[in-house]
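Notebook p. 47: complex prediction with molybdenum atom.
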Amino acid sequence: MTDDSLSTDSKLTTSKRRWASEGRFLTGRISRPETDRLPPGQHLVKNWPVLDLGEQPIVELESWRLQVVGGVEHSQSLTWAAFMALAQSSKISDIHCVTTWSRYDNKWEGVATRDLLDLVQPRPEATHVMLTSYDGYTTNLPLADFAAEEAILATTWEGQPLTRDHGGPMRLVVPHLYFWKSAKWLSRIELLAGDAAGFWEKNGYHMLGDPWREQRYSDD
Ligand SMILES: Nc1nc2c(c(=O)[nH]1)N[C@H]1C(S)=C(S)[C@@H](COP(=O)(O)O)O[C@H]1N2
Ligand SMILES: [Mo]
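Predicted complex, structure tokens below:
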């Protein structure tokens, strides 16, 4: 490899190297054996239930925007075309809903949250993320969890465009947390210097929501 090729990719890899050196997004999680795949208190479903506040917004691609703001070097207001021009990834993951259903092996395509973070460059003080959606829903999570390897801003499910009832045209999927953290119809990602409660978190749900530790309610 020449010095030239090192410098051309440096813009994209700088933040990754910095995060790696800080150990910033290392959550210490390891892959689990198949027998230990279902978190405590969960049961398996084959269908995919729809859960939301009841209003499923119609978001036209022409007017769709994804804002990334707050503790970032390069805030964004991405059009659909700009979003689809970002590196596209594919992930397969399990869903764990706090209402006790889990669904295995969901195939998602979209933009890995890490690739979006490479674009915006989080500032050192950013520790948490607040997500806001087109239906007014909000939810919060630590930046390290938002940046997890499996986390994706999904535009397809099982090879088909994400349907409106499941959050189309784009939703977040953070599979290692309860599914209420996976905002449907996502419109805004704000990086914060501390934690703040979103909709369900203000209504008694856990600030983190780790299914493996059964963090359903704020006192769990
Ligand atoms: N914008 C938005 N996102 C949301 C919700 C919501 O009401 N509005 N509900 C959350 C909850 S509680 C769950 S369990 C999942 C359900 O996603 P699904 O309907 O695709 O199964 O979406 C989450 N994301
Ligand atoms: Mo939920």
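Notes: Residues 97 and 179 are 5 Å apart (CA to CA). DSSP finds six helices and eleven strands in the chain.
Next step: compare against the earlier run before touching the bench.
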